[in-house]
């Protein structure tokens, strides 16, 4: 247990000092290695890095990252936005609803919150500000709705969890559909309530012809998630093969829209390579920590300590939510998940909590960190995209955190929300 405190404490300290996350994980793990008396086993470090990054299950990540970047390159965001605008723009606060629904639809393609902010963010904020919405509300709503991205399949975050928890990617993808829709609906309810006392404009109602054109242009993008998820769930493709299918389908859509450009493809490849390398390096370096924890039985000691202190599953779930929300404010989701999951999973198993349900709770809890200071990657990105100052954006987004927190509590207390769809299609585990 002391080893765990040294390694995790050292990592947090290095992060607070501004050390890059990969170096912080590696350095704290090496400190733990020497403290445990394994200094003469330094050869294990490169072995564990290669072993962690070389897992076949993780090969899906670069392909889904590339698919999301290709979708951005070919102008998919414009067509999704126009389709949603034609569909719900004529309601009061129509553009705010468009923001939510467009994020939900784009989530079925990109699988990442930052892709949503970078792709749809500028378009949505510009349109909302032009129609009289405040810059702070427009930017804050765009960051908040991007939380749907890593929940709705395909999801890079869920692929990482599936690898860590030894769970089916298909089951986790199915489990993310209902929670993703619930998060989107919670934002719609919030907007509806706020619109009762805050003036929010309506857009001109689209004609049937305009709606038909927007639907035809948007259909190829809208059926992409169904193709990807269907290929995995019904056994036509593995998660990695589905990622390849997503990339190929993205290129086909680009040809259909006649918006594909060689420079755009090259930029997407470069950006995807950089992001994928970063993710895989974090995973590889974290493997050292996982190996050390397993060798010293740190997870078992941690779980035993929790079981001695907490006796009810719901108390453990609330403890987990508070812990992860706080950790998410200071640490990115992927390294936080890699470090904390080996400690929390044995306790979750002891309480009889389904690992699929636990994965959705962990994913959404850590996602809140994207939209909360001081780390708040989504806030920094949106501040750069929209020109709204970080401090004002951080304050404006606080009320918008209420809807996803309510959904998070529901996911933790009602397992059927998460498990109903995968159990219906794939059968109970």
Describe the structure.
The chain is mainly α. It contains 23 helices and no strands. The protein is globular and about 70 Å long. The relative contact order is 0.15. The model has no long low-confidence stretch (mean pLDDT about 80).
Short description:
This protein is mainly alpha-helical.
- Count of β-strands: 0
Low-confidence stretches: none
The shape is globular
Q: Average pLDDT value?
A: 79
Number of helices: 23
- Describe the biggest sheet? none
Briefly note the structural class of the backbone. mainly alpha
- What's the SSE pattern? HHHHHHHHHHHHHHHHHHHHHHH
User: Which radius of gyration do the C-alpha atoms yield?
Assistant: 22 Å
What is the beta-strand fraction? under 5%
What is the CA-CA span between the terminal residues? Answer: 32 Å
Fraction of helical residues: over 70%
Which labels suit this protein?
429 residues, mainly alpha
Write the layout of secondary structure elements.
Layout lengths: L1 H15 L4 H15 L8 H10 L6 H14 L2 H13 L5 H17 L2 H18 L4 H11 L10 H10 L3 H7 L1 H18 L13 H15 L1 H10 L5 H19 L4 H34 L2 H12 L3 H16 L4 H18 L4 H13 L9 H10 L3 H7 L5 H12 L1 H12 L3
Helix pairs in contact: 1-2, 2-15, 3-15, 4-14, 4-15, 5-6, 5-12, 6-7, 6-8, 6-11, 7-8, 7-20, 8-20, 8-21, 9-18, 9-19, 10-23, 11-22, 13-14, 15-18, 16-18, 17-18, 17-19, 17-22, 18-19, 19-22, 22-23
